[in-house]
UniProtKB/TrEMBL annotation:
Organism: Staphylococcus aureus
PROSITE patterns reported in the protein's UniProt record: DEAH_ATP_HELICASE (PS00690), HELICASE_ATP_BIND_1 (PS51192)
InterPro entries for this protein: DEAD/DEAH_box_helicase_dom (IPR011545), DNA/RNA_helicase_DEAH_CS (IPR002464), Helicase_ATP-bd (IPR014001), P-loop_NTPase (IPR027417)
Gene (UniProt): recQ_5
Record-given protein name: ATP-dependent DNA helicase RecQ
UniProt xrefs under Gene3D superfamilies: P-loop containing nucleotide triphosphate hydrolases
Amino acid sequence: MEKNVVTCIHSGMDEIEKKHNIKCLRHSRFIFLSPEFLLQPANFKLISTIDFGMIVLDEAHCLSEWGYDFRPHYALIGKVTKHFKDAVVLALTATAPPHLQDDLTENVSGSIQRY
């Protein structure tokens, strides 16, 4: 199996491609996953055996804006960051007023430095 590959799993993939990419997870250097995929119990069990150095939350304001009604798995991302407590969490957004920043801090374990 190839080393240092980039693996992506999303809802638009057919099952054959998804199964292939799941097999590649352990050998991947960069993994892109949706909260819905990641937080399914069987998938989380698989992912939890991988040693992550960093968790990147792109469009992090979605945790607060979408995480309660539209895409509830976003609100559960704290479960992931708590499990991988040694991983650095990089939350990226350009549209987070102070109340959204506070909500993000509550949902993601550890302290957050704002830049």
